[in-house]
Amino acid sequence: MAMAVTMEVGNDGVGVISISNPPLNIINAAILAALKEKFGEATRRRDVKAIVLTGKGGRFSGGFDINAFQNPSVLKYASINVGTTGDTSDRTIESIDLVLNTIEDCKKPVVAAIEGLALGGGLELAMGCHARIAAPKTQLGLPELTLGVIPGLGGTQSLPRLVGVSKAIEMMLFSKPIMSEEGKLLGLIDEIATSEELVRVSRLHALEISDGRKPWVRSLHRTDKIGSLSEAQQLLRTAREQAKRTAPNMPQHLACLDAVEEGLLHGGYKGLLKEAAVSKELVQSNTTKALTHLFFAQRATAKVPNITDVGLKPNHVKKVGIIGGGIMGSGIATSLMLSNITVFLKEINSEYLLKGMKTVEGGYYIDTLCAPFVNIV
């Protein structure tokens, strides 16, 4: 199936806009441009009362195309004139243009029908909609920090307003996804529907918003989940201290918290400006380049020429030799023995060998179990 964004308008007056970029419906510049076009068409058409945004193939979207991080110029897919004060005019503010102007401020209600996964930019698109309907066991998350960047399509502003500051910090800083069932309890998801009923339920929900029977909720305008400003700032201070201890060389953690705080102090719109500015700086940083390289390198190990592509399978390991019985060697030996693998432990003399044996035995309190498996060399 070719990459495309399509729209089908039913007799009920709902335009269903579908993202198709198999296998994960990854978002790139072409997809974003097509989304803007289809939303513009749906807004103009008189036969369209409401809009449903979804993904083909049982997946909403796995996020933004990571290849773009290696060529930052492709990230500039849209430009608007902010036109507020001096230095912000005539800037490229992608997140504001797409999520705020195109989706959240759309003149017709937009409901996201989410299935399979909505990660990174995919979840950010969904949070820009006025409601979210999800299939069971759908994965939701913002994992951008693992690549050295922060959410750049409004996620630093929408997520705290939908799930609360504490949970949003946890999901972003630890790249910790949740399932749709938890999302429903938190308020991120409005309804759960089976895969078979997902689009139908989403259409009905969109029409009910259009008819005034359900609330028309703009995520960026919400404040009910934020709580008091003093409590929110304390949460941010604690998160900063933890980030400095656990990730001192990862600037994206503090940058993400800065964007969140900007929105809490000065409103979601200002927060989006901060998010966009920080995103552009981070995407060109050495940290992002290194983490992106690592991401692709790890996946390349699953595609080794003449190994993975010819159907070779690993032999069952029965015996393993370990040189050195220190802390690391003895730990490895113990793990292997607990997996019923015979271990040959080699040391420079019998004194060091016996010491290594005792480390293994003492560490797991299994004196009588270890000896039969260990061969002294």
UniProtKB/TrEMBL annotation:
> Is Nucleus among this UniProt entry's keywords?
no
Q: Where is the 3-hydroxyacyl-CoA dehydrogenase NAD binding domain?
A: 319-362
Q: Which CDD domains match?
A: crotonase-like
Entry GO terms, CC:
peroxisome
Keywords tagged on the record: Isomerase, Lyase, Multifunctional enzyme
Annotated family: Belongs to the enoyl-CoA hydratase/isomerase family.
What protein does this entry describe? Answer: 3-hydroxyacyl-CoA dehydrogenase NAD binding domain-containing protein
Q: Which organism is it from?
A: Gossypium aridum
Classification of source organism: Eukaryota, Viridiplantae, Streptophyta, Embryophyta, Tracheophyta
